[in-house]
Design goal:
heterodimer; A: mainly alpha; 75% helix; 0% strand; B: alpha/beta; Rossmann fold; Alpha-Beta Plaits; 2 domains; six-stranded mixed β-sheet; four-stranded antiparallel β-sheet; 10 helices; 14 strands; 32% helix; elongated
């Protein structure tokens, strides 16, 4: 298994992928955090869906991670794209046959690939969190935000909780990306399907029939980052996502194990 | 090892059916250890399907097989000793040749130190740092061969290794295969360059429409073919007269490059020489040759018809 992880890390650490991903993530995070703090208390909104976030709120232990939480959904979409492309490209490049000749255990290939991509996602999330914290401290003075509570035990707990939740949601989105990659065997199809579903179709569905939101995977994965959806709980999202992802992952794993590698 | 200890590859009744179409039908053949075995057949005859089954990439519909003595249903037992290049080289375009090999070396748990010597061995020492997407077809092919050599294989499976190579590259691959065979590596190589295979293969497996039509020593195949007498008259105007003489004697004849190619035993040459002389024809050359592998291939597979 460790050999598969090392091999996959070699692919993931190539500068064009690693640096561009970290640059995009840093840019998004700092931008979201910047807007939150720069436009603090602005009646036209500076938070999620036009929400007005005040200096008073940002001065609470949760203020430090507000910007980081804002970008979590997009981090998930980035993870989905990376997991999907890294998986599906083995089919389009024809490199899967090389991998399977050197490591015939398909489950080890799958598990090693998944673990290495999760490690990559953890790095991405840590990069994002660090940039958000840096930007928050840098702009706290301008926004008249008192940072004292950020470094208290409550602040550290809020930070750890946010980190854990964002990691969980990013891993969920990434897993969906890998599932789509295995299913479609084409990076473009896998990414397009995932992005269109999560960014467009789910929102249309939830907008048209609000009761469906409770059962939509993307809405529930997003709920894991904040637990702020008032119509369904964090626990509901956790259980539902686990059912969806474990079910789908089991199906595609069986498919991957049994399917002939003919390209 | 379980069975077939003196065989590199052995398959029995191996079949692969896709829907109504049999890509391979009840193939039975064996490849002795330590030999270079050519695997030939027209396009679509089932060569790549067979290779994929031997490497555990696709599962047979029916039949059994062993590679290095292990059942093909357990590829993990023999693949660490097998190097393979299937259907052309496939690598990550954004990675360098060296990095691509390192990925596979990591995956196989091989020492990374073997990568640079292998790049040197296939003539890519100075281009190892270039991205794979910048390689020419020949360079990609060389990298594929280097990847196949990573495990220092006991069995090397090469599918069309000379595709895209220039004559010099083809010569180098031939030398490489000969060197590996001399070191005891078994080589199973498919190619459409039959003249190349004839030069390096002691053993042949020939497929036609998913069925094995020959499995044995190359020499046995060629010597079983009827030799051809090539007779060239001194004057071209005598060629038709010579053809008439041959036909009257009951032998099949074709005209190629100003000479008569006659299907007949080698010892009929003396009779032909006498008959030509009696008809006033002087032969400038008269030689008996065995058909080439290419000719034999065309005859046996019906390819080119």
């Amino acid at each position: 298994m460790k050999h598969v992880i090392f091999a996959e890390m070699r692919k993931l650490r190539r500068p064009t992928l690693l640096l561009s991903t970290m640059a995009i993530v840093t840019l998004l995070t700092t931008l979201f955090t910047f807007i939150t703090f720069w436009r603090v208390g602005n009646p036209r909104g500076n938070g999620r869906r036009g929400e007005v976030v005040t200096a008073q709120f940002l001065s609470t232990p949760h203020g430090l991670v507000y910007g980081f939480n804002l970008v979590a959904f997009l981090l998930g979409i980035v993870a989905l794209c990376i997991f999907a492309s890294q998986t599906a490209q083995e089919y389009t490049y024809g490199t899967l046959r090389n991998l399977l000749v050197r490591q015939p255990s398909r489950m080890k290939i799958l598990a090693g690939k998944y673990i290495s991509m999760v490690l990559f996602a953890i790095l991405m999330v840590l990069f994002s969190m660090t940039s958000s914290i840096g930007m928050a401290f840098a702009l706290a003075g301008h926004a008249h935000v008192i940072t004292t509570s950020w470094t208290t035990s409550a602040g550290i707990t809020a930070l750890a909780t946010a980190l854990g939740n964002v990691l969980l949601s990013v891993a969920c989105f990434g897993t969906v990306g890998m599932i789509l990659g295995l299913l479609f065997r084409s990076p473009i199809s896998a990414i397009a399907t995932g992005v269109i579903w999560f960014l467009i179709l789910e929102n249309i569905l939830a907008g048209l029939i609000s009761s469906t939101a409770k059962w939509l995977p993307g809405q529930n994965i997003a709920n894991l980052t904040t637990g702020q959806n008032f119509t369904f709980s964090y626990q509901h999202s956790l259980i539902l996502d686990a059912i969806y992802i474990i079910g789908a992952a089991t199906l595609v794993s069986i498919l991957f194990k049994r399917r002939d590698v003919a390209n | 090892m379980n069975q077939g200890q003196d065989l590199a590859i052995s398959v029995s009744d191996l079949s692969k059916v896709y829907g109504e179409r049999a890509a391979l039908s009840h193939a039975t053949f064996s490849v002795p250890l330590g030999t270079v075995c050519g695997f030939v057949g027209p396009n679509g005859s089932g060569k790549t399907t067979t290779i994929r089954m031997l490497l555990g990439l696709i599962s047979p519909t029916d039949g059994t097989g062993t590679v290095l003595g292990h059942d093909i249903s357990q590829p993990e037992k023999y693949l660490p000793q097998v190097g393979a290049m299937i259907e052309g080289p496939a690598f990550y375009p954004a990675l360098s040749g060296r990095e691509n090999l390192r990925v596979l070396a990591s995956l196989g748990g091989f020492d990374q130190a073997i990568v640079d010597p292998l790049l040197e061995r296939v003539g890519l020492g100075d281009r190892g740092g270039s991205k794979f997407k910048t390689y020419s077809l020949g360079m990609k092919q060389r990298l594929g061969i280097a990847a196949a050599l990573l495990p220092n294989p006991k069995l090397l499976v090469l599918d069309e290794p000379t595709n895209g190579l220039d004559p010099n590259g083809i010569h180098e691959v031939r030398s490489l295969i000969k060197d590996l065979a001399a070191d005891g590596t078994s080589v199973f190589v498919s190619s459409h360059l039959l003249s190349e295979l004839q030069m390096i293969c002691e053993h042949l497996v020939m497929l036609r429409e998913g069925k094995v039509i020959f499995n044995g020593k190359t020499d046995d195949l060629l010597s079983a073919q009827q030799p051809v007498l090539i007779a060239k008259p001194e004057y071209a105007v005598d060629l038709n007269k010579l053809v008439d003489i041959v036909k009257k004697s009951g032998h099949a004849v074709t005209l190629e490059d100003g000479a008569a190619h006659i299907l007949s035993p080698a010892d009929w040459a003396a009779t032909l020489n006498r008959l030509a002389f009696e008809a006033g024809i002087t032969l400038s050359s008269l030689t008996s040759v065995l058909p080439t592998l290419e000719k034999t291939f065309f005859e046996m597979t019906g390819a080119g018809e």
